[in-house]
Amino acid sequence: MMPLTKILIVDDEPPIRVACAKILSEQGSTTVVAENGLVGLEKAKAQDFDLVLIDLKMPQMDGMELLGHLNVLDPDLVKIVITGFATLDTAIEAVQKGAYDYLPKPFTPGELRTRVNRGLEKRALLREAKRLREEREKNLLELANEKNRTQTIIHCMGDGLLVTNRDRQVVLCNPSGRRLLKVKRPVQVGEPLDQVAGCPEFVELIESTLNLKGGQEMTSKEISPASPSDPVLMANCAPVKDEKGQIIGVVTVLRDITELKELDKAKSTFVSMVAHELRAPLAAIEGYLDVILDGVGVEDPQKINRILDRSRERTRGLLALINDLLAISRMQGGRVSREKERLQLSSLLREVVELIKGEALERQVELVADFSEELPLISANREDLTRVFTNLVDNAIKYNRPGGKVFVRARANDAFIHVEVQDTGIGIPKEEREKIFDEFYRVKSKETQRISGTGLGLCIAKRILEAHNGDIEVESQMNVGSTFRVLLPI
Ligand code: ADP
Fold first, then answer.
1. Residue 1: its pLDDT value, please?
2. Distance, CA 442 to ligand 1 centroid (Å)?
3. Residue 216 has what pLDDT?
4. pLDDT at 108 over 80
5. Average pLDDT for residues 251-255, to the nearest whole number?
6. Among 399, 405, 460, which residue has the most ligand 1 atoms within 8 Å of its CB, making it the best to mutate?
7. Pocket test for ligand 1, best of 325, 395, 407 (most atoms within 8 A of CB)
8. What does the angle CA 211 – CA 215 – CA 218 come to, to the nearest 5 degrees?
9. Could you tell me the domains of the chain?
């Protein structure tokens, strides 16, 4: 039994139409009839058929013409022509024009069934071929898409990718690979590795990967830069193996680790600086305690008090240093701009001046606040800005002289608030003006020797201001004074 099939019968003779439909329906096909070529074409356009029986001689549109139209409509549709009084030549012509077979009149039901079933088998074959063709095309498309996707990924990777074969030739080098290896031209497939890799260290690493033995799966090495301006690279090489486990090439992933290296260096410098800064006051305190414990030459209670006073001073210094270090680490954790609020800078500055007034008086420095009551509100963290201005005013007093002055001014324009802390103090040498914003940097001079500090205040201030999209700069003249200018966006 044929699977469900649909047959169109186009014939102008009703008895033949009806008889064919009956015979074919009996064998399980669905049949549709048409009385001429025109109607037949309309029906073929409206529905899908597996096979069409076409009488060649019909009024309006004859079988030959219909054949031509059906070829265009569905090339896989099987057409069998019914040839009445036609000669063999006409049948051959019909086959040449796309008919699959012909059935000469008169024919028996058996002949009709045989031809039609052969035609339906052909149709099934054509359908299967079409399905396979479409599937293949889809697979090819998917394959092409997959290839494109992989190529795009390799092309856009931030890491460099270099693939080499056993003959030390480059098979693939992506744009990041060229950038990191400083190859300014396109790399051709098959180029010798040493022309692309540049440094011998890297070539050696790939060589050693090609000669890996046993279970070793990867080699990694930091490639030192040829010149200080070149990036520091980390190369990770993995062997490519064939199905027998033989190494046939190497895939290398190159990563720029310059920043990581710098960070690492900065971290260890910072740790040794901190250790150094902590050691000095602790050693001093230990020394003071030793003196008291030994009891040699300290029978005098006044002397003991002096030693204890100094110890307390050093302990306070240590605490200040630890607080500053905590502030720095908080900032490095990216938490500097905690909860910002709309604040009035003039009231914050007034509080700072009030807080420091006592110290100014003690050091005989006159503190002059010169700013209007109302400044535009800014969005900032109160605690952080208090720290910035306390440090600036405190420095202006510390690095001043008895009888000196400190002015705290603030004004605003359309976009910024400018705050100025000016002193008539010792001044900062020109070559050190930039460095004073670095961690632990303190100007070393006879005058600063006796002034305590951590060297972290300005560094913290600068970071806080950066986190507020602001800025700080200094102008100074030796023995005349310094002016620190802070800029904060409104
Ligand atoms: P410190 O705790 O040492 O004061 P800072 O980071 O606040 O640390 O300042 C760094 C250095 O800059 C100080 O040690 C000092 O040498 C110099 N400095 C800062 N402010 C002034 C100022 N107003 N006048 C002169 N020197 C200053």
1. 47
2. 6
3. 72
4. yes
5. 95
6. 399
7. 395
8. 60
9. 6-132 (3.40.50.2300), 157-256 (3.30.450.20), 260-332 (1.10.287.130), 341-489 (3.30.565.10)
